[in-house]
Amino acid sequence: MLTGVSAVSEKSSVDMDWDSLTFSFTKTDRMYVARCNEGEEWEKGLMQDFENLSLSPASGVINYGQGLFEGMKAQYAEDGKVVLFRPAENARRSREGARRLGMPPIPEEMFLDAIKQTVKENIRWVPPIGKGALYIRPLLFGSGAILGVAPAPEFTFLVYVSPVGPYFKGGIKPTSLRVSDEFHRAAPGGSGGVKAIGNYAPGMVPSKMAKKDGFSEIIYLDAVNHKYVEEVGAANFFCVKNEIISTPELTGTILAGVTRSSVIELAKSRGYEVREEKIDISYAMDADECFCVGTAAVVSAIGTIEHGEKVVEFCGGRVGPITMEMYELLTSIQQRKIADEFGWTVEV
Fold first, then answer.
1. CATH number of domain containing 81
2. Full residue range of the structural domain in which residue 308 is found
3. What pLDDT shows up at residue 170?
4. pLDDT tens for residues 221-259?
5. Is 268 one of the catalytic residues?
6. Alpha carbon 186 to chain centroid distance?
7. How far apart are CA 86 and CA 75, in angstroms?
8. Which residue among 195, 227, 268, 310 is the active-site one?
9. Could you tell me where the beta strands, DSSP code E, fall in the chain?
């Protein structure tokens, strides 16, 4: 199954219309694969040509959802280098998630080496600067066959990549959101704080329903009190009132986003007061501006929020000043257009 260096990865260019690239999957050249038996150490991972997987119908990931993933991006910077953004944070979150789901954690050095190898062997798929990025998808799952509800006897760690276009064509644009009173993303004591594969399928129907009615996504409230903001679809939420930036605190029900922590640190460095706290939906609806953050969009402005019969528009439907400041600062750091004083970017 594992092969040597493929001649296709040595090509210097790819036949791709970068201007029409969307945020969707495109098959690339190579992927990284490693395996580990229960109770043993991870084997040395190897690169192979991108291909379909062969799994037992009784594999732990298919039957019990024992799996997690990460989302990262590699992109060209102003200095001509291909860079990653805070990959060690993804490695850390992956390890914590693996422990919660009963899987052997990936050592940080192995995780980072796998990311860099995969990007290097697919370097021709990295879009030109300003045209998008190479989306990186590390996966860890129970690949061994298991009938009872228990950890799989074998695990697989793999990394594949796909070129993606800018999340917002033509620049950041405000989105419209609907608050969900019917659906909840996670409950206390569950796996809401883990990037588990099982957390995402239940959100597809609520999201589809909202988009059918003209909304971009939904806002989830907490499952206990039904009034505190948790996440926007699969993104972290922020709101601004009197120049104080607030975001839901990490209580185990929302994901500790890498972009989330970056915005918090960046805002504090610019003199803003940032509060990690419970955010009542009524407070959010009365905010001066709102935005959400994640790997794909980086920072996404929220133009309107509908909750029941009430609809609130922020900043006249335009991008708020602090939202724009965070977006421009963060993307400029990611592309090395300004000095990276935090040491967040890592060369491949």
1. 3.30.470.10
2. 175-334
3. 64
4. 999 999 999 999 989 999 999 999 999 999 999 999 999
5. no
6. 17
7. 13
8. 195
9. 30-37, 46-49, 67-69, 72-76, 82-85, 133-142, 154-164, 175-180, 217-221, 229-232, 235-241, 244-248, 273-277, 289-294, 298-307, 310-313, 345-347
